[in-house]
Amino acid sequence: HWNHDIAIIQLGAWEELYPSPLIAYADMEPTTLPSGDHNIAYVLSLMTCPNPNGTPSPEEQVYLNGQYDPERSFFDSAAVLKTSICTHTIQTEGSGSEYDFTMYAIVHPKAVTCLNSDGAEYDRVQALQELGYWVLIYDEPVPKGQISGSTYLRDNVDTDTGIRDLIKLHAFKLEQHPVVVMVDLTTLILQPLDEVINTFLADTPAKAMYTKDYATTLPVTGTNQGINTGLFFL
């Protein structure tokens, strides 16, 4: 059930803004993406590269010979994520699920090539392709200067991953799937999501479904509510 195709969908002239190695991907023809009434899209978004010499996040803590290895960590994390999803779909006999799945990765152009701890570059799109992800390379959908309606949002959008975080909005384009589930490298699926998916589909007015995140919303007051995009249904 591993799919070795790759899909590159262009948005604007990103291949001019971000040169090699993206040129090779820019030359590829867009491919017709999977679809189906029972085919659920799972979308991993990659906005930035990890710090090759910094303290790794929990999902990146893979070491080889005592050395932190971002490339191996990324490959293993993406593989575990996909395996946990596949195990609980119709692709796995005995799972009890009625739904198939397609793995997507929405990758910012600046997050395609990253540095390993030894300074060597590695290509995360290539790694995702080897794992059977459909890769979509997208720039930010809205330039910072064009954000309107909220001065606060425009002035503070560059915190954390900043405006690159908005590439997640491109998940709304996957309209050929009945449900889109946004995940990240800390997500681990432990059982079929059929009950959740069916409940979401039965609630016709529903546009999104998500869990609230209190602990990481600063300041931590116990009442302010963030949104956990590590498991977000569209």
Give a quick set of tags describing it:
single chain; 234 residues; alpha/beta; six-stranded mixed beta sheet; two-stranded antiparallel sheet; 6 helices; 21% helix; 20% strand; globular; disordered N terminus; Nucleotide-diphossugar_trans
Care to give the gist of this entry?
With 234 residues, this protein is α/β, with parallel strands linked by helices.
> Strand-residue fraction?
15-25%
Helix content: 10-25%
What is the averaged pLDDT score?
76
Number of helices: 6
Which spans of ≥5 residues are poorly predicted at pLDDT below 50? Answer: 1-24, 62-66
Rg (C-alpha, Å): 18 Å
Helix-and-strand structural type? alpha/beta
Spatial sequence of strands, sheet with the most strands = 7-4-1-8-10-9
Overall domain count: 1
Q: Major β-sheet, in short?
A: 6 strands, mixed
The count of strands amounts to 10
Element string (H = helix, E = strand)? HHEEEHEEEHEHEHEE
Query: What shape does the CA trace take?
Result: globular
For the termini, the CA-CA separation is: 24 Å
InterPro entries: Nucleotide-diphossugar_trans
Description of the molecule:
The chain has one domain (14-195). The chain has 234 residues and is α/β, with parallel strands linked by helices. Helix content is 21%, strand content 20%. β5 and β6 (121-123) form a beta hairpin. The protein starts with 13 loop residues before the first helix and ends with a strand. The strands form three sheets. It has a six-stranded mixed sheet with strand order 7-4-1-8-10-9, with helices on one face. It has a two-stranded antiparallel ribbon with strand order 2-3. The protein has a two-stranded antiparallel ribbon with strand order 5-6. The protein has six helices and ten strands. Residues 1-24 and 62-66 have low confidence and may be disordered. The protein is globular.
